[in-house]
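Q: Sequence in, structure out?
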Amino acid sequence: MDIKEDERFMRLALKEAEQARDLDEVPVGAVIVQGGSVIARGHNLCERLNDFTAHAEMQAFTSASEYLGGKFLDKCTLYVTLEPCPMCAGAAFWTRIGRIVYGAPDLKRGYDRWAVHPEKEGHGGANSENGLLHPKTEIQGGILADECSQLVKDFFSKKRK
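A: Exactly. Output:
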């Protein structure tokens, strides 16, 4: 996909993140796209559902699988406003998602913090056989990163007042 398409779908994920914010949830949003069409949407619902696993990605994975009538999302792209956590990266592994595009990096809780990097340890990596993501999953970060990051920063800034 080209950058314009990635930005277009990330803007839809940002709308989902704004819905989460409006529910007083951490503002993370996700959409899943197949063949140029959005087939699933999700945003954080952890507080509302009293469920730590109710992340935007998890909501979107469930919705996409229901829409497709199967559990594998290998022909799909996940757009998510924040780098997936290890739990969501693990779920992405099992869905065999074809591509993940995220906005802002999450240096504290993002999956990449837990990945083994070959340049540092001599083997592995986020998409390796022992990595958190499926070996065939493509990953692209930094799409509309400033907007995605600012939404989260503003949310927590208001919480601290």
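The CA atoms of residues 103 and 144 lie 5 Å apart.
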